[in-house]
Write a structure and sequence with these properties.
heterodimer; A: alpha/beta; Rossmann fold; four-stranded parallel beta sheet; globular; B: alpha+beta; six-stranded mixed beta sheet; 19 strands
Chain lengths: 161, 371
Amino acid sequence: MSTNSFLPHVLVLPEDDANRQLAIGFRLEIPFALSRKIQVLPIAGGWLRVLDCFEKDHVGAMARFPNRTMVLLIDFDGQRDRLDRAKAVIPDNLKDRVFVLGAWTDPEALKAILGSYEKIGQALAEDCREETATTWGHELLRHNAGEMERLRQQVRPILFQ
Amino acid sequence: MIRRLYVHNFRCLENFELPVSGQPSVLLIGKNGSGKTTVGLALEILQKIARGTNRVGDLVKPKDLSRGRMDVPMRFEVDVELKAKVYEYVIAFELPEGFKELRILEEKLAVNGKPVYTRNGAQVHLAKAAQGQEKEASFRIDWHMVALPIVQEQSTTDPLFIFKHWLARMLILRPIPSLIVGDSNLDTLEPNLQVTDFGAWFSGLLAYSPSAYSKIDDYLKQVMPDLKDIRNPVIGTDSRSLVVQFSNDQGSITVPFADLSDGEKCFMICALVLAANVHNGPLLCFWDEPDNYLALPEVGHFVVALRQAFQSGGQFIATSHNPEAIRCFSDENTLVLYRKSHLEPTIVRPLNELQVSGDLIGALIRGDVEP
């Protein structure tokens, strides 16, 4: 009777506690009637562990549940190749359902500028809902633009419409 | 919304202030015996006063004095913001030598800093009403009686009425589902701690605001998609008994409320909390371990539903030991309660003031989260 795994839903796999709090803030902004369509998973404990956990625990499950979308929430630590490295572990048949997002350095830097993690998450959700880029356009987040565009097309209908 | 709750010399709470100002939802965490439930008990005393219990002996006992300390008053102070006004209520009890029951030392209700009434010992002083139509008045009452339930409010706009009404409607919940059977012979908007009067609360809320059913139905159909409706038929002269109907393409079934699972009864309570906050609120809801009785995949949804509901009004305070529930809050709205020993008082710190590196749940399991 929980999130129906056969209906469209989103799982968020955060790298660390800062990203988890950000995801919780995002989740709080989802319309009440749709809020069971998203679940924030326990933290993986590092970006490499996110990828490891995704491969071990989620690739098989995603094949079983074709309406499952996953967001891997990692820190880019200023590394330009991190998105490619992350995408390399995503099987081709799942690439359209898996998104890799995160702060360019780490969310701590974002927090210093934008407020608490939860508030940042709420602001990011508001951008998604309103189709704006006020917070997503921040210099520490704007590198997500490509993934965000895909996300907007696929996830927005699940969580905001 | 509570701006400040101060408790002194009550059980493990000494010079204790709960920092919940500006937070629509707050989580209290800490080891067993750290004082989380005692915060709820302190609120319960205030709630009982507003619901009409005025005998001091029915509210607090000498054993409630921290480590039996009789030379210091037991004090409760709450500042509440309601419709842009700050209501400040203070009550202090003392236990003079030779007394077996505590008595009132001091009591006060003020709005935006202006007293509605003040009291020292037996002497109560009613301030002049804001409109100027009332005169000041002084009278004496039994020092074992609390004044708040006794002083007559003038109208529904009287600050005394507004505050007392809000305090009485606080939801302080520690449900025991096995005791909840769904029968009722009265209506209420003020459920008890264990929610054994669920049927009466259901009836009362719908009698007060019939449209609350749609909020109840919205939530329950999310968690139990095969729910058709809840009925509350008359079963005797003055009694009702809730039944729940489920249906899908295979047919339908009617289940007496008492036969629902413990977790399903908690969904029902949650639905009423959400509806009450909208239709009879904004409310303060203190729920001691809301994750109890829930299946693991439900915990997060359940807690987030409550957090979401109170974002737009009211205040939700939860306690928990459940990792999944704890993960639904953030450093800024998680308060850590801590006690070094049974001889020392509770200390409270926001999680964001503590040095917790890495996984919070791991740190909690290791016992590393200490102020």
